[in-house]
Amino acid sequence: MKRRAARRVPGRWAGPMAGMKMQLIGASRVRDFTRALTQPSLVRRLLIAQMLLLTLLWSAGAGYLLSQGARPLLDTRKLYETINAIADELADDPDRRQRVLDRAHEAIVEDYDAINDPLPGFVVQQHGRIVYRSPKAPDFVPEGPLDRQFPLRLGGVAYVAKTMQAPSGTRTTMFARNQGWNVFITIYSKGFYLLPLLISLPILVVPAWLSIRLAMRPWSAVAREMARRGPQDLTPLAYREGHRELAVMVEAINGWMRRVSDSSERERVFVADAAHELRTPLAAMLV
């Protein structure tokens, strides 16, 4: 009885096998990517070191600015001169002076928000009496030296104040909370010092990586030369570029290969001498 030939269905397992193969390839790629991330890398270490150094420098600068408290705002001499000039020019029109100085105060605190409340303020004096007081500014002018900052407490809050006097005798005393955030939120720009750090770090990653890769080219050249050598090639490396960091390693490798070559040569001479010494008695015995 003839056996019936088994019918083959070529495409029956093609779909599942192809899917399984793609899954294995994907898993292999994931493993390779994970291994590349976890494997120690000198390039990655140098890149991280550069980014950490940049962050440290920016942090040190930001820390210094935070330690300044309200000093940068109160040291804006032109601001005092402008307020005193407005008060002098509009001394005969109190209503207009009030409106203009209100607008000036709004411009000063424009970039401040709720976390800085109470906001900076100022008091203007003419002929010994207060002619203007910004919102939330104190009703009195504390005694303090001219053109110098001095600390005070108002309502349990630490302030720094400074008084400057115009040639006409008009005085402006400015008050600001003694906290570091006054440095970052000034009449110029909010976040002026932090934005460069946030923007520059991601952008500098690629140039830093490229610069490190270029700096590592001599190391790669030495590695390729070592890989091309056979097991019997113990001649010194041909590296002659003179980089100090790499020259030390190349010199150590060449010294090691010289010692191995000398040891191999001594072993070869010893084996040759031993063979000669053994060959002479054996020849005499055979005779």
Outline the structure in words.
The chain has a 5-stranded antiparallel β-sheet with strand order 2-1-5-4-3. It starts with 13 loop residues before the first helix and ends with a helix. The protein is built from 9 helices and 5 strands. With 287 residues, the protein is of the alpha+beta class. Helix 2 runs antiparallel to helix 7 and helix 4 packs antiparallel against helix 5. The chain is 57% helix and 11% strand. The N terminus is likely disordered. Among the domains are: 109 residues, Beta-Lactamase (2-Layer Sandwich), CATH 3.30.450; 50 residues.
Short description:
The chain has about 290 residues and is α+β, with helices and mostly antiparallel strands.
- By helix and strand content, what is the structural category? alpha+beta
Instruction: Report helical residue fraction.
Output: 55-70%
SSE ordering: HHHHHEEEEEHHHH
Helix run count:
9
CATH structural architecture of the domain at 71-179? 2-Layer Sandwich
What is the CATH fold-level name of the domain at 71-179? Beta-Lactamase
Strand-residue proportion: 5-15%
Instruction: Tell me the number of strands.
Output: 5
Task: Spell out the blueprint of helices and strands.
Layout: H1 14-38, H2 42-67, H3 71-74, H4 77-89, H5 94-108, E1 121-126, E2 129-133, E3 149-154, E4 157-165, E5 171-177, H6 181-184, H7 195-215, H8 217-228, H9 244-286
Antiparallel strand pairs: 1-2, 1-5, 3-4, 4-5
